[in-house]
Amino acid sequence: MFELNLDISHFLDSCWQKKPTVIKQGFIDFEDPILPDEIAGLAMEEEIESRLVYKTDNKWKAESGPFASFEKLENDGASLLIQAVDHWHEEAQTLVRPFRFLPNWRIDDLMISYSTPKGGVGPHIDNYDVFIIQGLGKRHWRVGDKVAMREFAAHGALKHCEAFDAIIDVILEPGDILYIPCGFPHEGYAVEPSMNYSVGFRAPDQNDLLSSFADYCLDSNEVPERYLDRAMQLREKPGQIEAQELNELHRIMLAKCQTPDALIPWFGEMISEAKHDLDIAELEQPHSTKEILNFFEEGAQFTRLGGLRAVYFQQLPALLFINGEQFSCEGFTELGHHLCDQDEVGSELLELLNEDNSALNLFTQLVNLGYWYAI
Ligand code: SIN
Ligand code: CO
User: Fold this and answer.
1) Which residues crowd ion ligand 2, with CB under 5 Å?
2) Model confidence over 22-53: pLDDT tens digits?
3) Hey, which residues does 53 pair with through a beta bridge?
4) Half-sphere exposure of residue 256, counting CA atoms within 13 Å on the CB side?
5) What domains lie within the chain, and their CATH numbers?
6) Atom of ligand 1 lying closest to residue 200 CA
7) DSSP state of 328
8) Ligand 2 centroid vs 125 CA: distance in angstroms?
């Protein structure tokens, strides 16, 4: 169980999305939830996104996994990075939990890196907020101010930024956390063999939102409103698009998302979809509702699958969005929300599940989909 040693209210008021911050001993007596060898094992898997970053002849190199061997990690100056480890490793996944003081929908994934001395990915800027936790070893981090900065490809798959003056210059030790808001340049190089855990927070930008919403509209069966101009008058200037015509085009576009509520199904499905594969275990045989009740009666706890995204909207409480799909919790919203709010559930649900068949059916369905499992 990882517990954050942090005054969260103070952090939110003073640091979150405002300034890079070192949280010295954010985890007291930190123990790595995963070994470097396990990291290497994950990097051998086809469905897991991994990268190896190193330098040869002073030139940056980046290779994508899967990898069959790791000679590069026998030398100094190399880093192996694995994306979405929370999807694949049960203990590593628990490192995301202390950060759920921020909402589920903002959490992206847990990236883990293993670096040999001097290893790092070079100076760069991320489009997301990140908490970088130091595990094994020590790493020297520099963070610069958020100013307009030139970015360039140091290698095909490695975007760097120009050199910057440091506003933070620190050597992280096991259990220390470096919080870097979106847009602040940073670079970190291992002082000794080093494990780093990055809990990232995604925030869509206007283009992400518009393109995803447009895709959703294209996929829907709704007949779209088309521009009409029945009141057309004789025109003197055929080259001109008149102001009232542009107003009408604008009205048609906005009509699709006139109220925040109109965004709900699209945004719920989009934001609850995992960006990386989930490690869904196929059940040999689906569980019956009776079996599920038995599990609870015997005191079993159920945990949400690592990386599974589950959210609901304040405006529409009877609908859950889980892994890109909608599930109704009409009549048992308390239980539905509890599933989204908690990483683990147990006996506190027994009474509710006993009383409400629809709730039991839903939970059984979620277990049979592999989204929750008994531990
Ligand atoms: C790393 O762990 O090497 C990269 C973390 C980051 O800079 O975002
Ligand atoms: Co970064």
Assistant:
1) 126
2) 999 999 999 999 999 999 999 999 999 999 99
3) 62, 79
4) 18
5) 8-201 (2.60.120.650), 206-258 (no CATH), 289-374 (3.40.366.30)
6) 8
7) E
8) 6
